[in-house]
Design goal:
Keywords: Hydrolase, Magnesium, Metal-binding, Phosphoprotein, Signal, Zinc. About 45% of the residues lie in helices and about 15% in strands. The chain has 19 helices and 16 strands. The strands form four sheets. Strands 7-8-6-3-9-1-10-15-2-16 form a ten-stranded mixed β-sheet, with helices on both faces. Strands 4-5 form a two-stranded antiparallel sheet. A hairpin with a 2-residue loop joins strand 4 and strand 5. Helix 6 runs parallel beside helix 19 and helix 17 runs antiparallel to helix 18. The radius of gyration is 23 Å and the shape is globular. It starts with a helix and ends with a helix. The N terminus is likely disordered. Bound molecules: zinc ion. Zinc ion binds next to loops. Zinc ion (ZN) binds next to loops.
Length: about 450
């Protein structure tokens, strides 16, 4: 329900009370049910999913990819069923009007625009209260899940405060040190970034364990934990991409399901933020294969959240992006085609294949093992030359040749290694979803989330 509508209902209610008539009749509805409507529009639980860098094109490409590209009816993705609108993402920054992840996540977490790099602080470095903090102050359980370091800009903007997104150690400290009503702020933390918790100056893993948290470092341990508070760190930095993972590393869906199972034990409700972090990383790297790997991961997490919400009936699920990355296009150089087939014939990302080539120096064997289509002799020749470069230049050159080969075969275009400023899609399901309809501003998301979590 839109705020103005609630406000006008309240006005009518007050007027009707003053004049002694039935407010439902005065409102013209006659059903007398606006109180119930209001309740049903306020979710008890919120699962807010952010596909980092997931501009509109990623969602369209993923639909093509799932359908093989040439399906007549082009069946919907999990996202498509739940599209409700778009959001504006511009930051409030004197020098840049295209947002970074920090300013955008801060807007969605707190309801305030800020400068690029800011982690839930304003221009004067005042701390901005986040939806996660409001939830904890309302005695709800809280969680953060990401495939990047859990201290990365997006999760940090919900659970920490810092003048710069680059202060990972300080952000990890905030997760432990900043208490709400003497309680730990974030009950479930799942992602990467061990290096920021197990440090020379401080061992936060032990400190969390001393507060009663289970610490887990692989998928099996995570599944076994029955604890209501959980710290799971599965890699030094970001997690491997979905296509490159072994059984040791949980998927985003596994982590999301674990967080939901854990947090939903709380009868007061919960707030969970889930980030598909590396859609953005693939975008920065202009890597369409990596992007589809991470879209698969993110879609499965979204589907798990929707499944829970359908059973539960009191949970709002929102999925959106913080900005677009890479200026990615379906179609290249005048070609009226985007060919997803070569992507289905790849079994690892270019990043992984590059590491293998550098390690084995066996170009054709490695390419044969992971890619079902053949490179041209020119492409093989270029890879051979790249292996003769100084060590520091090899990796970028090899990966670039493989990514170019993929782009040429799929007709994928890129315009930048950075972010672009288009509006992004918003998907929603459950009580409160009407607020996200049409064109919203990212600060409205923060306002809605905070008002839901305050109840
Ligand atoms: Zn981002």
């Amino acid at each position: 329900m839109k705020k103005w509508f609630i406000a006008s209902l309240l006005t009518l209610f007050v007027l009707a009370s003053v004049f002694g008539s039935n407010p439902a009749t005065a409102a013209g509805g006659g059903s007398g049910s606006q109180g119930a409507d209001q309740d049903s529009d306020t979710p008890k639980n919120v699962i807010y999913l952010i596909g980092d860098g997931m501009g509109v094109t990623y969602n369209t490409a993923y639909r093509y990819y799932k359908n093989g590209g040439f399906s007549e009816d082009m069946a919907d993705t999990e996202f498509d069923h739940h599209l409700v609108g778009q959001q504006k993402t511009h930051p409030h920054d004197e020098e840049e009007n295209i947002t970074d992840s920090a300013a955008s996540a801060t807007a969605m977490a707190t309801g305030s625009k800020t400068y690029n790099n800011a982690i839930a602080v304003d221009h004067d470095l005042n701390e901005l209260e986040t939806a996660l903090e409001v939830a904890k102050a309302s005695d709800k359980s809280t969680g953060l899940v990401a495939t990047s370091e859990i201290t990365h800009a997006t999760p940090a903007s919900f659970g920490a405060h810092d003048e710069s997104r680059h202060n990972h150690a300080e952000i990890a400290d905030d997760y432990f040190d900043e208490r709400i009503n003497d309680q730990m702020k974030v009950d479930v933390l799942l992602g990467g970034g061990i290096e920021y918790f197990d440090r020379e100056d401080r061992n936060l893993i032990e400190e969390f364990q001393n507060e009663g948290y289970d610490f887990v470092s692989n998928a099996q341990e995570m599944q076994q934990s029955q604890n209501s508070q959980l710290l799971g760190l599965f890699s030094e930095g970001g997690l491997p991409k979905k296509w490159d993972r072994t059984e040791e590393t949980p998927s985003l869906e596994n982590m999301t399901q674990t967080a939901i199972d854990t947090l939903s034990q709380d009868e007061e409700g919960f707030f969970l933020m889930v980030e598909g972090s590396q859609i953005d990383w693939a975008g920065h790297a202009n890597d369409i294969a990596g992007a589809m790997s991470e879209m698969e991961d993110f879609e499965a997490a979204f589907a798990a959240a929707i499944d829970f919400a359908e059973q539960d009936g009191e949970t709002l699920v929102v999925a959106t992006a913080d900005h677009n990355t890479g200026g990615f296009s379906l179609g290249l150089d005048g070609e009226y085609n985007w060919n997803a087939e070569p992507l289905h014939e790849m079994h690892r990302t270019p990043e992984f294949i590059t590491e293998e080539i550098l390690e084995t120096e066996d170009i054709e064997g490695t390419v044969d093992a992971y890619i079902d289509w053949a490179l041209t002799s020119e492409e093989i020749g270029a890879l051979e030359e790249a292996l003769l470069l100084p060590t520091a230049d090899r990796s970028g050159e090899v990966e670039g040749i493989i990514k170019d080969a993929v782009d040429k075969r799929t007709f994928t275009g890129w315009t930048t290694s950075g972010h672009t400023g288009e509006d992004v899609n918003v998907y929603a399901y459950g009580p409160g979803k009407d607020n996200f309809q049409g064109l919203t501003d990212n600060i409205e998301h923060g306002d809605f989330l905070k008002s839901f979590m305050a109840q």
